[in-house]
Specification:
By secondary structure, the chain is α+β, with helices and mostly antiparallel strands. The chain has helices at 3-12, 14-26, 34-52, 91-94, 109-125, 148-155, 203-215, 255-266, 290-306, 322-328, 356-371, and strands spanning 57-61, 64-69, 77-82, 98-100, 103-105, 132-137, 160-162, 172-176, 178-187, 191-192, 225-233, 239-240, 243-252, 276-285, 314-317, 333-334, 341-342, 350-352. It is elongated and about 85 Å long.
Length: 374
Amino acid sequence: MKHALLLAAAADEAPRMRAELAALVEQESFSKDLPALHACADLVAELGAQALKSTPRRLELGGRPHLLWPGSGTGDVLLLGHFDTVWPTGTLAGWPFTVDGDLASGPGVFDMKAGIVQMFAALRLLPSAQGVAVLLTSDEEIGSPSSRELIEDTARGCRAVLVPEPSAAGALKTARKGIGAYRLHVRGRAAHAGLEPERGINATVEVAHQVLRIAALGDVRVGTSVTPTVLSGGSSMNTVPEQASVQVDVRAWTATELERVDAALRTLQPVAAGADLQLHGGVNRYALEASQSADLFAAAAQEAQALGLAPLRRAAVGGGSDGNLTAGLGVPTLDGLGAVGDHAHAPGEYADLSAMPQRAALMTALIKRLLGTG
């Protein structure tokens, strides 16, 4: 299909995309609500079966439903996304799906139900889905604890991974920071704070020393942030604290930086004699580095030009996605191919309906190019 015809065919999909988006948003899918996730998986499976002309494998891991349409094997193009949202069940009652002009609003509309709808439209526009695999998971918003291995196993051997996560104000996401998640636990010794405080080892004071050391590991020059977040400690007002802990969020653009911080955290030593430090956690997702998406972005930019679309822009973002997992395997990965809109995870998130056919056509053209069928 020539580019002009492809764009026209995508425009014809607009009413169907709007209807599918309404249905998906109106089926809530909070990450922690398993019955809602199963109901949403039913709907996503139905929509996907219409687009791919086949039913997915429904894989339940940890009680969570994940949907996989396998490809033909090595050399597939993998389309990777998620249908869970950050919005608690019941949010829809006070914030229903609405359309104002070209803007659709509702919980999860931008992140990332509009991206799923666009992806299915793109698949309908393909002459054949041969060579395309699709994986949609239900736990991305909580760190992909049950789906991580499935994602990595599916991605190995693929020629490329395309992720219809929301765009960054229209820009494709060509780099994402990697993430480390840690908890430092301090064990001291309890004592009566009034009668004999000198016999105690104050875990709260110790964790305060460690917080300063941890925060100093960040390096703003290269964009590495090391942020102590949740603190806890102590048992009562009049007791020298025996236990304290701090959670730590680490973000970096490169694997080298993530590993530097990881090594430094593992060599922390107590300040107070007798205190004990235990570190839990590690690198959760390696970075999607710009080099891993460069060729895919260049191909997408050429296809956008051929379609007569505005020049594509690229963006580097601090948040992670499942695209980090596939990039961590060395598989070329391009993210942010989903909705044009704004306010992910915030009240009033919206998607631009007028951009959805264009982005669907772009994904179709890019898949055909990667498969050599364009």
